[in-house]
Amino acid sequence: MSLNTNTWNRLRYTLYLPVYDLVADRIFRKYRKRSIQLLAANPSDNILLLGAGTGLDLTYLHGFHNLTAIDITPGMIARLKQRAESLHLPVRAEVMDGQKLDFADNSFDAVILHLILAVIPDPVACIEEVERVLKPGGTAMVFDKFLPNDQKPSLLRRFFNQIASTLFSDINRSIGHIISYTSLRQEVNEPAALGGTFRIVRLRKP
Length: 206
Ligand SMILES: C[S@@+](CC[C@H](N)C(=O)[O-])C[C@H]1O[C@@H](n2cnc3c(N)ncnc32)[C@H](O)[C@@H]1O
Fold this sequence. Notes:
By secondary structure, the protein is α/β, with parallel strands linked by helices.
């Protein structure tokens, strides 16, 4: 039985909110910037930030005027709206489940998935939704920690993951497995934080 549910995530991210930026800003700044560079989007592109948290990525999206952000935690969305206002950035922000998006097919040029695929209870449901809402030719940028595609987690790692996935994020997911349920193609997969445990991955919908 897994404790990784929407209800649990909503509760724990509400508790983490006061310290979230202290932990997730400085150490990941460089990689957020790099990921958004690799997205190479136009300011008019329709971009979805999925599991957007407090909106730390918005700092790197100056001049973009077609931004939508969703997150399961109401407190995160409230904080993101404050940040968008202080950055003078127009963002449509809503509480929504990233596994069941309330958007039409083919509606976004790009989706940003930073630190979400290892957190969300069902990453395959999430990536299938990303595939559905992306326009043909659209891009998804992923930044997260993954197991190498060919590595099976050891027994010890599986045990430790019970704690990690409940309190932080899952340490046993592989990006190759997650996207294998979709037509998304991996164009870039480069090492990021923690000696390459974190990766920056660019996906394209054919
Ligand atoms: C590690 S934080 C990452 C936040 C942000 N993307 C960042 O890079 O700082 C994970 C976020 O995923 C959100 N989340 C968890 N489950 C979700 C779901 N089913 N749908 C949407 N957001 C979810 C949490 O509320 C939290 O804000």
